[in-house]
Design a protein that fits this description.
It is a single chain. The chain is 25% helix and 33% strand. It has 8 helices and 11 strands. The longest helix has 15 residues, at 19-33.
Length: 248
């Protein structure tokens, strides 16, 4: 018979994400919130195991992830101590207005990983616009201070792609790159954010664990003729993304 969970245990069985990854996210939030202050000792593995109703090995594996990020230090016979809070400066703010989406990110480096032509998107995230005859598909990786934080897949109306200077592919946000195309006027644009987990390719490209949380942002832009000139999918590392919204 399965042993009952502790009264206040968090139910980790409701998610498809590996338990140790869920615990690592929980511990990360405790450091961020100050529940586990910098310089202070964390609860022991036995205490965390009892509190959360999981095996000691699972807690240990979660703490391994935080130690790999240099957020905690472990000392034999002394325990585990919080070394530092997560690096706030490499967080990426996902803008929620047009001007913010056009702004470049300080210190960001953009690599073009793939550049293909003559394609059509497999699915449309928003019910706006009509498809162009064909699209140029780009995969780009954004890094800051050597840390990858965004993997982007872009579809650009192939009739417009020749008007994009090559340097813009490495220096501009996707919508800024589109908005700067000579003679192009954007009539409508949409953005949607969902939360998901990293697949094998995303985990490898963003240097993160498989099934770790990611923010998935879908963007679409339509020109004045009603043509869907741009579609984008951005996968942001869950530990580096932040969304700020003004509430009316």
């Amino acid at each position: 018979m399965k042993a009952p969970k502790p009264r206040h245990a968090i139910d980790l069985d409701r998610s498809g994400v590996a338990r140790y990854i869920q615990l690592a996210s929980l511990f990360l939030r405790r450091i961020e919130s100050g529940d586990w202050p910098v310089g202070e000792q964390t609860p022991t593995i036995d205490e965390l195991s009892a509190e959360l109703g999981v095996a000691r090995a699972t807690v240990r594996k979660a703490l391994d992830m935080l130690e790999a990020e240099h957020l905690i230090e472990r000392y034999r016979a002394k325990g585990t101590f919080v070394r530092q809070r997560p690096r706030q400066q490499i967080w990426c703010e996902v803008a929620t207005d047009w001007s913010g989406l056009l702004a470049a990110r300080d210190d960001a480096v953009i690599e073009v990983l793939k550049d293909e032509r003559g394609l059509q998107p497999a699915e449309l995230p928003h019910a706006i616009g009509k498809l162009a005859p064909s699209y140029r598909r780009l995969m780009r990786r954004h890094t800051r201070h050597g840390h990858p934080f965004l993997l982007a897949r872009l579809y650009i109306d192939e009739r417009l792609s020749s008007r994009i200077p090559k340097r813009n592919l490495h220096t501009m946000t996707a919508l800024k790159m589109i908005a700067d195309i000579p003679g192009l006027s954007i009539k409508e644009a949409r953005q949607t954010l969902v939360i998901g987990t990293a697949d094998v390719e995303t985990a490898e490209r963003l240097d993160m664990p498989l099934n770790a949380p990611v923010g998935i942002v879908h963007r679409s832009a339509v020109d004045k003729t009603g043509c869907l000139v741009f579609l984008g999918e951005g996968l942001y590392r869950g530990d580096m993304v932040r969304i700020d919204m003004k509430l009316k």
